[in-house]
Every structure is written in structure tokens, then in C-alpha cells.
What does this fold into?
Amino acid sequence: MRAVLLLSGGLDSYTAGAIAGGDGYELYALTVRYGQVHEREVEAARHVARALAVKRHLELDVPLAKIGGSALVGEGDIPKDRVLDREADAGGIPSTYVPARNTVFLSLAMAWAEVIGAEAIVIDVNALDYSGYPDCRPEYLRAFERVAALATRAGVEGRPLRILAPLLEWSKAQIIRRGLDLGVDYGLTWSCYDPSPGGAPCGRCDSCILRARGFAEAGVSDPAGTSG
It folds into this structure.
């Protein structure tokens, strides 16, 4: 079995890849440089790809920064020190949401899956821990799976592509515990949205806060630092 893994270099995509590999999938990793201000994650993705022993690691340049609309591509400041829970931000979509990013990424993965004959795409989206992103919801993934069935040769020929989101309903602590059980080295990963000029994680953005909370709740220390 083959699967295209959307690999960002963060702890979630590493864990999702380790789970898929453990389930018997031969992994083909896809990393997209979309103009993110935190490109340190691309370097981390290379280290993670080697650790996962992927068959191939493809890096694509898709300049979503030219479209704009997100703090992650340099439009506005990265939010800091926010209270992250569903009740506090009910109905709100954070400025770090990149318009249509997962749709673009899944479409690229779908195209590559057709070429290599992959049966699945692995994506690290999570709907349980706070995110607020509309393209991380279960109904969105089901809808895209339907699109893949209708829009690809494999789907028309009765070989529909599966969208695997093994972390969808897990807390960050559960993700970390599962990864450690699989031997994942989280010291290779990167999560920070807004690193300092010297390359240190800020410790204050949403991603840093969620990462630190996850390790604290899992009862283990972060090998990459408080919020690497």
C-alpha cells in the first residue's frame, strides 16, 4: 500500500506519518513551501522525512503568500498569548487561517497519488484541540474524499482515494503519547509560527502554546524545548 503524507515538519504530521507507516503504508511525503513566515518547518520536514524513511520526499513551491489573507504569510501580526479554548473563540476563525490551504494541499496530494498509484492521503488535521480552521473539520474531509472519487481516474475506475486523518479526534497529549509509543523523536519537529531572528521559538503563538500544553498534559518534557 502507498500513501501520500502531507508533511509540515510539525509533531502532528510526524505522528500521523508514523501511524500510517505502522499500518503498512509505504510513505511518499509532500511538503509545500507556500510563503509561510515560519519556513523553519520545511527544514524540520526534511529531518522527519528521513526519520520516517519515506520512499520519496517532494517539496513544491506554491506561493499562497501572493494571494495573502493570513498572518502566516506575512499579512498582519501573528497572534500571541491568546486563551485557546472553544468557548472563548466560538465561531471565530484566527488570523493564522490560510485561505483554502488544506484544499490546495489535498489537491496536490491527490494529483501525486494518481501518478504513483497511492491508495490514500494522510493529513494531520485535528478537530478536538483548538484550531478554529474550517478546513480541519470531519465533514470537510468527507467532502474532499467525495471530490477525489469524482475527479480522478482511479475514482472513476472504482479505486477511490481514502483521506486518512488519524489524529482527528485526539487531544495534543494523546497525539504525543501515541507518537512516543511509536518511537517518534519530537526533537526533530518544529511548531512555532513566529520564531525569533535567531531561530528560537517564540513560546507565545497559538502553536507554541498548544504544543507546550500537550507535553505538560502528557507528563513528558519537550525534547525540542518548551515550544520548538
Summary: The chain has one domain: 2-218. The first strand starts at residue 2 and ends at 6.
